[in-house]
Structures are given as structure tokens and as C-alpha cells.
What does this fold into?
Amino acid sequence: DGGITQSPKYLFRKEGQNVTLSCEQNLNHDAMYWYRQDPGQGLRLIYYSQIVNDFQKGDIAEGYSVSREKKESFPLTVTSAQKNPTAFYLCASSGRTSGRTDTQYFGPGTRLTVL
Amino acid sequence: GDSVTQMEGPVTLSEEAFLTINCTYTATGYPSLFWYVQYPGEGLQLLLKATKADDKGSNKGFEATYRKETTSFHLEKGSVQVSDSAVYFCALYSSASKIIFGSGTRLSIRP
It folds into this structure.
């Protein structure tokens, strides 16, 4: 059963600690994305990766870091430099379908709360 | 730059009412257009898409038509159910190879 998994669903951390959010996909998609969603808000792009070993900053990359060592995996680290890390984090991926790579498919999300 | 504007919510309707959620866009060329739905505490699910002018996307009774002349992609459903209560996002695939999302419209359906 193909899809995107994010773990854990809920994550609690103390202020000043780094935390890594997991995102794995078995859709054989080349591109992967991380978004942040705050209550009642739309999605903001943090980082994206079009291919293994390459990634680009999105609109709100400060205080975050990523790696893309494997096609299937795109972990996001929320560092202590992120001033307001409490949010809902969504991972997505896209691949070539009908000659296009424009449709993104989302994981279930991780809700991070920093205490 | 490319952008998406959708009607602000919340929208509250009675069951079996007709639904319209307005969405307009600004973009160069002919971007693909999408509607995504988010149920409480979950990720986004693709609801429907259209890739060229006059295309109609449809799924689960929802429809939207790509109108190039009015740069719109309004979401409609003839008879809503309580289970349709969710947040709906309009989006486009931009010339910068990224998806641009609208701010979302919260829909609540009363039994």
C-alpha cells in the first residue's frame, strides 16, 4: 500500500532542544516537501528537494534543516534557533504522472509542541 | 508573482444545501489548479484537479471548472453532507515549480 508516513503523530519537546521529524514515502517520487501549518492558517513551505542529495530553502527555512540521503526519506530537524516551533508539520511528495510532476500527496502530519 | 485567493470562512450550511467556495488566481501561463481537503487533525488530501482551460475536475460529488477568462476555479457541490465538514484549500502549480496554496476555507455542515 503506497503512501507517505510521518512519525510520530504527536511530539513534545522542551525549549532549546533540537528535534527531528520523520517523513518516508514508498511512492517512488523524486520530489519531497516540508510545510508548516499554524492554527487557522494556510501552508508555508519550509524546504523542498527535487532529487536525492539536493534541497532548496522555501519561504520560512530559518531555524530548520533537512537532509535527503535516500529517495524515500526527507527528515526535518527543528533546531533551537526556530523561535516559535510549535505547529503542525506536513510532509508531501510528488512524482511524474501523465507526464506531469505537479500533484503533491501529503502525509498525516506531526503536531509538535514545545514546552 | 503567482497567487491564489479564496473566500474567507467559516462557511456554515445545512445538510443538503448547495455549496460554492470561490477561488481566483494570478499566474503566468496555464498552471494546473487543485482543490485539497483537510479533515481535523489530518494531512491534506487531493480532492480534484484540472490541468487546462475549460477542464472540469470532479470527485465525491464536488466539481470545479478551470475558467481562464475569469482566472477562477470555484468549488461546487449540489448537496452537502455533515461528513463534508473540513477545511478546503485551493492551489496552483506555479511557474517556479512549487504549489501555491490559498489560505483555506473552513466548512461546517449542520445536520
Observations:
- The interface with chain A takes residues 32, 34, 36, 41-46, 49, 51, 89, 93, 97-99, 101-104, 106 of chain B (CB under 8 Å).
- Chain B has a mean pLDDT of 94.
- DSSP finds no helices and twelve strands in chain B.
- The radius of gyration of chain B is 13 Å.
